Request: fold
Amino acid sequence: MAGPASPHERVASVLNHNAWFSRRPAELRRQLIERAQVSTVEAGHWLYDKGDEARGLYGVLSGSVTTLVALDNGENVPVNISGPGTIFGYAAQILGGHRVATAIARERSEIIFVPQHALAAIAREQPSLWIHFAELATEQLIWAVKIIAERARLSPRARLAARLYGYAMNWGKIGGTVTLPIRQDELAELTGLSRKTINGILREFEEAGLVRLGYREIAILDEGGLLRVVRKERT
Reply:
């Protein structure tokens, strides 16, 4: 009978569901996994703040992390919630070495961390590492631009469906039930909609069998149905 998976086996299993990571060369994936450290942090723990010196690459093994961006008025605005398999903290590796956002654990979470000295060692053997990170940063930029476009063009119903569908894609296997530990007030901030509007739309989605609402969580039952909402509705 096989024993429990080792930390590195768990990291490999989770990160292999990440679209960017799964497309990297096998040797690069192996080296990143071997150098990965896993630690458990409590809810509210700050992984890093804007302006901090970059000390390495992060990922989520279990739990979730909120990313916030500071506005010119000093307000920190949540822009994304990262679940298991997400990789983040890479922008600082190619933008001068300082953090451009703030990352805070939303709940008790297991965090993957590859320290800076380990990344430098990998880069000495594989100088293309930074090109791979640049590709990851480009993918994130495309995602951010898409979010801006959705706010400008999609109806509130389609905007919320698009965000839920995106999380279903990133946090679980398409075709099964994915449970997101996301509150309705957080969805309101992320989509630029009111809490009341979010609640009303989610109730409609629940009646249509697209989601199931629980205490501080939302189960995605029909991601294909959410995608159809996005494609059918426009402002």
